[in-house]
Each structure stands twice: as structure tokens, then as C-alpha cells.
């Protein structure tokens, strides 16, 4: 783990900058999500009232149960469907990521959201339902809430207990802009011949966006620097191999790529992908990242 809380290092070894979402941003997203799930529960209650399905005396209890039934699946399914984002997080431009830079797993998302019930909603419900005559329960609820807030404020990545258990944290979305054209610094003949040699087609270039291009650029800029040790040479070789295989699998590139051609493959793919994104931007379709298809739906 990097000493800088804004840096995540995925298994490929390329550091990525994700600014940590502050406590205020967390609260803003939480309020928005509570409002959204609360409106859904209120709509269900209104339907029950209009249809006369329940007696008015039961509305308070049924309303609390409906809020729970709507809320838990809302958080879990939203973050599963939108890669670590709920509607509230989308509004605040933040997302959940794995703390170690690895893939975000369904287990982690389910765990962090179930823990949210114990950390946030249960003590909040107790605080709202207690009165001055019941001092002990009120103090317990207050201490509970204070402890949950203290955990968030006491660590650099503003992780609550559910994040600590699930191995996740919440970060700001990076600004997806096309980087300066790295291919322009390479000899024109080498760039052109490299791109032609691998024969990337339009269908190969429909999968990634500006954010992934930024990440690939960082890898290639590191490759421009002379390695200091034999261990560094070996590490770079492993990183290149991992990235090439991930790209080939993602874009369904069938041609085998020997280790000696990995760097050429990455440079050629960078050149072709950048040209494709520039063309799409000219046509009015800017692509932020590899999830652009889900975003458009």
C-alpha cells in the first residue's frame, strides 16, 4: 500500500491516483441515497394506503419494514450494477474501489452494505426513536454513532468499519481527459509500422476510454526510462505481460503475442486507441472509460 492515501497500486504494479472522498462528500451521497430509497418506500406505502391493503395503525411498522426492504437491495444492487456507484455516489462523482487496487468483488460490496445497517441506520433509528426519559439507551446510541464517525475520521482514506472489513474505500472519480499524444514523441515510421503490424480493427477499439488510455500512457512512460536493476527489468516484463493479456482478452484479439513483442503491442495499441477516441470525440461521443456502454444505457 502506498504512503500516499490517494494512490492505489493494482496487481499490475502501475500506481493510479484516486483522490480520497472526504467525510462531507460521503454524507452528501448518503443523504441523496436515503432520499431516493425513502421515496421508493413512501410510494409503496402510498399504494398500500390507496388500495386499503393495511389498516392505518400498522402503517408506521410496515413503513419501517419497507424502508429496510428497499434500502438494502438498493445499495447492493446499485453498486454491483454500476461498478461501485449508487445514484447518490454518481451525483457526488465518487465510487467504491478495492483498497488494494484489485477488482471489486460482489462479496466486498455485500459485506460493506450490510455493515452499513449496523454502523449507520440502526444507531440513527435508535437516536430518532428514543426520548429523554430513557437515558441509558440514548447514551448507548450516541456513543455508537460517535464511534462510527470517529473510525471514519481516524484513518487517512476515510474508511468506515464496513470498508475496513470488506477491503474497500471510496474515492473521487478521476477526470477522464485524453493525455498528450505519447505516440508523437516516437519516430513516425516506427509508430505507423507498429500499428499496421498488429492490425487493430474498429471492433478491437470499442472497449476502452480516456481513463484506460491515461493508465496505458503511464506504463509506456515508465518504459521510456532506463531500468536501474535486474529486478526492475523482470518486474517490467511481468507488468507488460499482464497488461497485454488483459487487453487481448478484453478486445478479443486472437493473434498470439510473444513476450518480445509485448512493448510493441502496447505502443501500437496506444496509438490506435488514441486515434479512435479522437475520432469518436470529433463525432460527439466522448468516452470516459471502459464502462461507457453501461453509462449510455
UniProtKB/TrEMBL annotation:
> Which residue ranges does UniProt annotate as crossing the membrane?
20-50, 57-77, 135-153
| Topological relation to the membrane, as annotated | Multi-pass membrane protein
Q: Name its cellular compartments.
A: Membrane
- The answer to keyword Transmembrane helix applying to this record is yes
Instruction: Identify one Pfam family in the record.
Output: RDD
Instruction: Write the record's keywords in alphabetical order, separated by commas.
Output: Membrane, Transmembrane, Transmembrane helix
Record GO cellular component, one term: membrane
RDD domain spans which residues? 21-167
Name used for this protein in its record: Uncharacterized membrane protein YckC, RDD family
Which species does the entry assign this protein to? Albimonas pacifica
Taxon lineage = Bacteria, Pseudomonadati, Pseudomonadota, Alphaproteobacteria, Rhodobacterales
